[in-house]
Each structure stands twice: as C-alpha cells, then as structure tokens.
Amino acid sequence: MKIIVTGGAGFLGSHLCGKLLEQEHEVICIDNLLTGSEKNIEEFKSNPNFKFINHDVSKPLPENLEADQIYHLASPASPNLKSKKSYHAFPFETMLINTTGTWNMCDLALKHEAKLLFASTSEIYGEPLEHPQKETYRGNVSTTGPRSIYDEAKRFGETIVSAFVRSKGLDGRIIRIFNTYGPKMSLDDGRAVIEFVQAAINNQPFPIEGDGKETRAFCYVDDLIKGIIAAMEKGEKGQVYNLGNPHEFSILELAQKIKAITGSTSEMEFLPFPEDSPTKRCPDITKAKLELGWEPKVDLDEGLKKLIESLRPTN
C-alpha cells in the first residue's frame, strides 16, 4: 500500500516508517523537522519505497499527495519546560498541527478513501479521577493550564476525527498513546526515561520532579509500534484505543531501576513538581487486547537495557 506517516522523522514516526518499510509498503514521510530529525530517517533514504517531504501539514498540502492509509502522528509531545523541543516551546504550532493539521489529513483521507489513524495521547485524561484509565473516561483537564496547549489540542483533534467519521463517513480511528521509550528518543526530549538514563550514564543526579511517588506506565517502542499498526489494520471505524503498558511504576522506582542497570553512582535530586502535571497515569488496555489482539511483551527492565545499550559509546 501507499502509506503517509506525518511526523515520520520523530521518535515514534521513524520507528513506524521502518516497520512499514519492512512490510514492503510505499511510505511517504511528512515532517517539518520542528521536533523531528532527519537522522532518524537517514537509513531509509536509499530505499526506493521511501519518500521524505519537508512540510507542515497544518499548511495547504502538496499537490498530487495520495495514500491508502494515513498515520497522523505529527506533533511536539514533550511536556518538559527545559526542553527546546517541548510543546511549551511551540505552543501555537502544537495547537495548529493537532487541529488544522488533523482537519487537513481527514480531508485528504476522504478524498482518496483512505483509512486514517489519529495519534492522540493519554494526556487527554488530565489528572485522572479514574484509575487505571479506560477509553470511556472523559478526563479531568484544565482548559487554561500550561499543559492545555497540548492536552486540549489533542482532545479537539479527537473531536475533529469523530465528526468526520459521523458526518462524512471517514474511515478513521483514534489511539491514545501512554508513555513510550526506546532508541531514537531525542537526547533533549526532556522526559523522565531519557533524562534519567543520561544522568545515570554520566553519574549525575537524577532530576526527580516532586517526591518521586508519582506514577507512570512505560511501554517499549517496538511494542507500541505493533499496537499502532494493529489499530490501523484491525481497529473499528470511529473507535478509540488505549495503547500502553499496563504495569505501573513510581518515578522513584524508575530511577532506581536505571541506577541498578547502569551501575551508576547517581543520587536523587528532588525538584519542584510542575504545575498541571498529572500524579498518576496507567492504561486499561482491555479493549486493545480484545479487539486488536495486542498487548505489550517487553518488560521495563528489558526495554531499559535496550535503550541504555543504544546510548552507550561504541568505541
């Protein structure tokens, strides 16, 4: 098939492009490199089935663009205020890509009768009053807080896709991605896993925001990519699927695991907890198991070892 991946030069997008190329599809990667990197897709450029277009899909789309499937992953995603690639650094671009960009991709999918998958986020659940979170939970999100530029943009993106499905017959589905990690993560991404791994390798303090009791569920990237493809191939039109690892860990437990794996001498450095940041996050993936036949296989220790190995100097 001919498949478009927006945000294809990003962490998740580049892994998805690689997997689709392995399956011998023709892949069109569209990315304006705002937070993505050409290094992530360099290995694909010699593949005749791969094409890269440097473009912002919130702008009018290039002529003669067509596809059988569209994976719309484009968006800044890091919430870390220190990162130059966070959505805080690009607030208006983040809102536009998830709204106008989503609208444009829905229009394109309708034009070519293509299937569309919109990559939403667990952040639409906000500070959850339900735990773990099911797809039916509507969330507890601030519309004016510092994270709303991402959270609310993704929520409206879901609304756009759902309206296109109901009113125009779009063959669209939505995934809500929970914390994911693995090789090709940007070193200045700013999220806990990559921050902690770099700290451990360099024997620097672990920057723990809050008291470390806050929880997340961490999914290895290979597992997530399989889930994304399963949602496109097996997911029902108009449906929403949580994709993530249902095993929950505290941030302190994450740091301790990384310290043990690396043999680091790093100590814990406790910092103020960011405004509007959720204290817990864990997916209920019952629906993905039943309807997609998917669940993650890589446990946290195994995945962390793979990530750490990918970052160690080779010489």
Q: How is this structure best described in words?
A:
The protein is an alpha/beta fold and 315 residues long. It has one domain: 3-Layer(aba) Sandwich (Rossmann fold), CATH 3.40.50.720. The chain has a seven-stranded parallel β-sheet with strand order 3-2-1-4-5-6-11, sandwiched between helices. Strand 1, helix 1 and strand 2 form a beta-alpha-beta unit. Helix 1 crosses helix 5 and helix 2 runs parallel beside helix 3. The radius of gyration is 19 Å and the shape is globular. It starts with a strand and ends with a helix. The model has no long low-confidence stretch (mean pLDDT 96).
Mean pLDDT: 96
- In terms of per-residue confidence, which ranges show pLDDT below 50 for 5 or more consecutive residues? none
Q: Helix proportion of residues, in percent?
A: 25-40%
Please name the CATH architecture. Answer: 3-Layer(aba) Sandwich
CATH classification class: Alpha Beta
- Percent strand equals 15-25%
Shape: globular
Structural class by SSE content: alpha/beta
Number of spatially distinct domains: 1
Number of strands: 13
CATH topology: Rossmann fold
- What is the ordering of alpha helices and beta strands? EHEEEHEHEEHEEEHEEHEHH
Q: How many alpha or pi helices?
A: 8
> What is the CA-CA span between the terminal residues?
40 Å
Strand order of the largest sheet: 3-2-1-4-5-6-11
Radius of gyration: 19 Å
Secondary structure: elements and pairs:
Layout: E1 2-6, H1 11-22, E2 26-30, E3 50-53, E4 69-72, H2 91-111, E5 115-121, H3 148-168, E6 171-177, E7 180-181, H4 192-201, E8 206-209, E9 215-217, E10 219-220, H5 221-234, E11 240-243, E12 248-250, H6 251-262, E13 268-271, H7 286-292, H8 300-311
Parallel strand pairs: 1-2, 1-4, 2-3, 4-5, 5-6, 6-11, 7-10, 8-13
Antiparallel strand pairs: 9-12
